[in-house]
Write a structure and sequence with these properties.
By secondary structure, this protein is an alpha+beta fold. It folds into two domains: 2-86, Phosphorylase Kinase, domain 1; 93-341, Aminoglycoside phosphotransferase (APH), C-terminal lobe (Aminoglycoside 3'-phosphotransferase, Chain: A, domain 2, Alpha-Beta Complex), CATH 3.90.1200. Helices cover 53% and strands 12% of the residues. It is built from 13 helices and nine strands. It has helices at residues 2-13, 50-65, 93-100, 106-127, 145-163, 170-184, 223-230, 239-253, 261-288, 299-312, 314-318, 320-329, 334-341; strands at residues 19-23, 31-36, 41-46, 73-77, 82-86, 191-193, 202-205, 208-211, 218-220. The chain has a five-stranded antiparallel beta sheet, with helices on both faces. Strands 6-9 form a two-stranded antiparallel sheet. Strand 4 and strand 5 (82-86) form a beta hairpin. Helix 5 (145-163) packs across helix 9 (261-288) and helix 7 packs across helix 9 (261-288). The longest helix is centred in the last third of the chain and has 28 residues, at 261-288. It starts with a helix and ends with a helix.
Length: 342
């Protein structure tokens, strides 16, 4: 793919690239490169999934037209799965937090950055989401019962298979799923759901925020993306700051649509639960199936979020089998906890 990307770069910019460097793509099967000459540096990508490429390129062009800070797409060769996009550097919000965690006033600086992120989230979801072409969606067009069942199955075959030490009742666990589905489907999926709105997908470049990796976007409820951001285990937000950021989001969202704040918060923690379960599945899959063991480090803080959500989510309190698996098995098993903390 390097040769094809170099040809695309040279043809589009009418130059000769002098350097191409492979970059790490966290959870992706895409091949990502930085390509440059003496004047410009861009990111070159080969993606094996045409529908996913079409979604990313199409959504990027749509968001750029709406003046949202996303990478500019220079060119796209659909048949080959190749595209060139704006180079936004290497620093994600996740990287910034890791680098600054021990610095003075880290918490206040972190919350300030998260507050800035919330300036953009309602614009993606509501303002730009009103006009987006949902036919571009590459997995499913709506986060509804089928998508929830998919995430639940993913959680069972990855996280539960690796980290439970006692047998669990599959039928009873699926009864718990029905409780969660009924709760989540009360909220209408009328907005753009970014799907993976978290610190690894937010870039810091030239003192500005940029947003990437929205190719799994679809219709959905507003709560999901905010939950993905604020229950991102890498953020390690305390409850006071998390609650303050929820209130701030609601104020910012009110610029675009009048929300019932009490109703939003009533269902927020149920969306946070399905998001954390999906994240636990992804961390497990990437660690064991993709041999990216560094994702295991995200599991202990995600389990802390599970404990928090049991106290807050009305659905979780009714999901007796899931609760027993977490609190009577996984979190009581020293071998399991050593496994993720090693």
């Amino acid at each position: 793919m390097e040769r094809e990307l170099l040809f695309l770069f040279n043809d589009y910019f009418q130059t000769h690239a002098c350097q191409i460097t492979a970059l790490k793509g966290d959870g992706s099967d895409r091949k990502i490169y930085r390509i440059s000459d003496s004047r410009i540096s861009v990111i070159g990508i080969w993606g094996p999934n045409r529908a996913e490429n079409n979604a990313f390129v199409g959504f990027s062009r749509h968001f750029e037209r709406d003046a949202l800070p996303v990478p500019h797409i220079y060119c796209y060769e659909e048949a080959q799965g190749l595209y060139l996009e704006e180079d936004l550097g290497d620093i994600t919000l996740f990287d910034w937090m890791n680098a600054e965690r021990c610095s003075e006033n880290f918490e206040s600086k972190k919350v300030d950055l998260y507050s800035q992120v919330l300036d953009f989230l309602p614009r993606f979801q509501i303002e730009s989401g009103r006009r987006i072409d949902f036919s571009l969606c590459c997995q499913t067009e709506t986060f509804a019962a089928e998508a929830i069942r998919f995430d639940w199955a993913y959680f069972k075959r990855t996280f539960l298979q690796h980290f439970t030490s006692k047998p669990w009742d599959a039928a009873a666990l699926d009864d718990d799923l029905q409780i969660l589905i009924q709760r989540l489907l009360v909220e209408k999926p009328n907005y753009f759901l970014y799907r993976d709105f978290q610190s690894r997908n937010i870039m810091l470049h030239n003192h500005q925020l940029y947003f990437i990796d929205y190719q799994s976007g679809r219709r959905g409820a507003l709560q999901y993306d905010l939950a993905a951001l604020l229950y991102d285990p890498n953020a390690e937000l305390d409850e006071t700051n998390r609650e303050g950021l929820i209130e701030l989001y609601l104020l910012k969202a009110d610029r675009y649509i009048k929300l019932n704040h009490r109703r939003f918060i009533k269902y927020f923690n149920d969306f946070a639960l399905i998001r954390v379960l999906q994240a636990l599945a992804a961390f497990t899959f990437l660690s064991y199936d993709k041999n990216k063991q560094y994702f295991l480090r995200s599991i202990p803080p995600a389990l802390e979020n599970i404990t928090l959500l049991y106290a807050k989510s009305d659905a979780f309190k009714q999901m007796k089998t899931l609760a027993r698996i977490f609190f009577d098995d996984i979190m009581q098993n020293d071998r399991v906890m050593q496994k993720v903390q090693s």
